[in-house]
Amino acid sequence: MIYSLVTIIYLLLLIGVIVYKSKLVKNEEDFVVAGRGVPVYLLVGTLVCTWIGSGSLFGTAGLSFRSGFGELWFSFGAWIGIVVIYFIAARVRKISRFTLTDLLEQRYNHTAKMLGTITIIVAYLVIAGYQFKGGGRFISILSNGSIDVQTGALISCIVIITFTALAGMVSIISIDIFNGVLMILALFMALPLAISSHGGISEVIATINATSPQYLSLMEGRDPWWVIGIILPTFLLLVSESSIYQKFSSAKDAASAKKAVIGMLIGVVAIEFVICTIAVVGYAIYSSDPRFFMPDGSINQGMAEEVILRIGYEQVPAYAGAMLFAAGVAIILSTGNTFLMVTSTNLTQDILKPYFFKSTKDSKKLIRIQQISIIILGFLALAMVTQFETVLEMAFISYTMIGASLAPVLMASFFWKRVTAAGGVSSILGGMLVPVINKIMEVLGWSIGIFPVHTDYIAIPSLIASLTLLIGVSLLTTKPDEEKWKPFFD
């Protein structure tokens, strides 16, 4: 009862904040980039919450349960990416565009912008969709199975759509400071209690050494290709994360954007390390629990992804478990909000406004258009989740699609003056098509050469295709005029 009560109270608190903040939205700039006046501490909170979502709560936890501390390589890709974006955060804020695809149009051309928009909409709907799927699992556990996962996913979808549509970026940034603080408190409280529930740290280590000693090592039992394969998706997504660029544009000034990245790095490293450690402790706790294993002895990936919430519900005291569940609400809600917001912004700014509402100047009407887009895209994302078995699979495909398509062209925008429009367009196409074709071949049972590639490794051929086309086509075409690259280097 306490789990449901605390979760509902926290949800009502967030609803109150959003309803209040929705009254402050006066124009389109308020809705899309929060009026470009967000201070550092709020920006840190929302950047952390952008990254820590269902992919972390379920996907990262599930991978940790299956591979031990080797999962940290998956997280390490994002940490490297945060360091990289530190050097471009201030420049993004100075350019002050609404979306990442606006940057692509300025640096390359309109074709690059439209291809980027399509990539973002498809990949981010998958990411939004697995927030709904994670929410379904969350509600199913919270209700002790009386609400099934599918119904829970529908409930999550409706709640996230409502939160996002009420006040846009203002609502997201306003509640993310609460969400970020709660995540840190709940996870750091749960870790020692989970260890204690299994008899202490020595007993946890002894159990793991007796069953899977490689779990305590970063490299034992893992080949370098596996390490590269799981580093790349998170690195590529982080450096091409459209919502992060949109939030940089929300910052009070360029210096604030750059400072916030430091806080983001600290918060993300701390939270992901604790999530990984809790999941490894969970492996020790549940190493003989048949729910977590298939009849052939292999790990049940669906159950493995629920290990954090299972610990909160079954292993730690009720007060800590209730906080962990409230943090689960924060994690799912904040990330779902962000990805729906970014997807709807790209659809509205890049497709609907220029082609269907070009003459519309009424800010209120434009906000209504985006709110309708949020509703439609939200239910479309819910429909897409049926095509994937686990959150981790959805994460790998979406991370690779967005990362391989956009990360190389974005980094080239800020670090390579010679890159051309034709090179950028070719790179986006290559990075976008490889994971899509690979998934289609997998579904149809086709096989050509190395394809279909296992999901854990799909980032490698996708990135090779994207980089080869970016560099090769750029060197074969006429170098761009100075006016194209200068704003990105000032």
Tell me briefly what this model is.
This protein is an all-alpha fold and 490 residues long. Helices cover 77% and strands 0% of the residues. It contains 22 helices and no strands.
Question: Any chance you could write out the topology, listing elements then pairs?
Answer:
Blueprint lengths: L1 H21 L5 H6 L6 H12 L2 H14 L4 H15 L2 H7 L4 H8 L2 H33 L6 H19 L1 H29 L3 H11 L12 H16 L2 H7 L5 H32 L15 H4 L2 H8 L3 H39 L6 H22 L6 H25 L5 H24 L14 H18 L5 H8 L1
Helix pairs in contact: 1-10, 1-17, 3-10, 3-13, 3-14, 3-17, 4-8, 4-14, 4-19, 5-12, 5-14, 6-14, 7-8, 8-9, 8-17, 8-18, 8-19, 8-20, 9-10, 9-17, 9-18, 10-14, 10-17, 11-14, 12-19, 16-17, 17-18, 19-20, 19-21, 20-21
List the main descriptive attributes of the protein structure presented here.
Sodium/glucose cotransporter, mainly alpha, single chain, 490 residues
